[in-house]
Design goal:
With about 220 residues, this protein is mainly α. The chain has a single domain, classed as Four Helix Bundle (Hemerythrin (Met), subunit A) (Up-down Bundle), CATH 1.20.120.520. Helices cover about 75% and strands about 0% of the residues. It contains seven helices and no strands. Helix 2 runs antiparallel to helix 3 and helix 2 packs across helix 6. The N terminus is likely disordered.
Length: about 220
Amino acid sequence: MASTDSAERTGRHGPAAPSAPAGRQPLALRIVREEHERLAAVVHGMRHLARAMEEEGLRPDLKVLRAMLLYISEYPERLHHPKEDRFLFAPLRDHTHLHDAMLVELEVQHAQGEAMVRRLAHALARHEFGGPVELAYFVQQVKRYADFYSRHMRLEEEVIFPALREHLTEQEWQEADEAFAGNRDPLAGLDLKQDFERLYTTIVSITPAPWGLGPAL
């Protein structure tokens, strides 16, 4: 007997179209993983710098931290999350309700992440103008955000990615692949990826060794 979920899918869409071949990693998912890796690298770099500031008295040029904050605030909001919501999460909802609760949780986390980054920026400003007495609060906010974003990425990759591969059709994967490969803001139609790549390169080049390619302090 067909499951309720399968019947629901057939009723809305007609016979289920073939999904992506099991042995092929869709381009969209490869790009999402690459974007996760870059975001994680920036977040981990910020966490290591914050720890060194607190434990070793490191005093980096704060433009390094401001560049990191700009990257983790702008990149997910302008490119990463809108494409996930439109080209991955929405089609999955069309096929099954089994993952609705998790998708809602991920979308809530997207908003929470933006709020946490704003708190991070506020904490950095407090440290910049308030001196060492404000450092502990900034370090605390960095740790909270790093732990939060690590959990968020694991949920997507370990729970939602397998569901996407099970349910999305070849046509839907083609649309997702084109969207993620296009390197464009899906809401504004702007080509932003190159700007973020330059910012990422700048972050790597000015972050002090051993976390980046800049001179050690």
